[in-house]
Amino acid sequence: MAISKTLFVSLVLSLLLLDQVQSIQTDQVTSNAISEAAYSYPKIDCGGACKARCRLSSRPRLCKRACGTCCARCNCVPPGTSGNTETCPCYANMTTHGNRRKCP
Question: Which interval of the chain is the signal sequence (predicted)?
Fold first, then answer.
């Protein structure tokens, strides 16, 4: 009889502890979703921005492909056909495996 009471009490305490852990995890997920929503920026039209950026390129398809990759990761494309990288540091700092600039 004493073993069954001890087993019952430990089971109840385990369930209470499990409920507390689940409550904490739910609060963390909710707070992460709120913080991500607060800092999300509207997506830009990468196709249009890269078309404008690469319009004078000698290799427009290659330029648009690289620009599209960079735009998707950074959500920005510098204005003009070259330079102006100070307006988008993420775009300017991205490099290839050979440490060359990735973004046109």
Answer: 1-23
The answer to whether position 71 is within a domain reads yes
- Answer whether residue 65 is part of any domain: yes
Q: How many domains does the chain have?
A: 1
Q: In this predicted structure, which of 23-32, 52-61, 71-80 has the lowest mean pLDDT? A: 23-32
Q: Which domain holds residue 52?
A: 46-93
CA end-to-end span of the chain: 78
Rounded CA separation 10/102 (Å): 59
Q: Is 7 strand, coil or helix?
A: helix
How many C-beta atoms lie closer than 10 Å to residue 14's C-beta? 10
If one compares 45 and 29, the residue with the highest pLDDT of the two is 45
In angstroms, what CA-CA distances link 62 with 23, 54, 83, 92?
50, 9, 17, 17
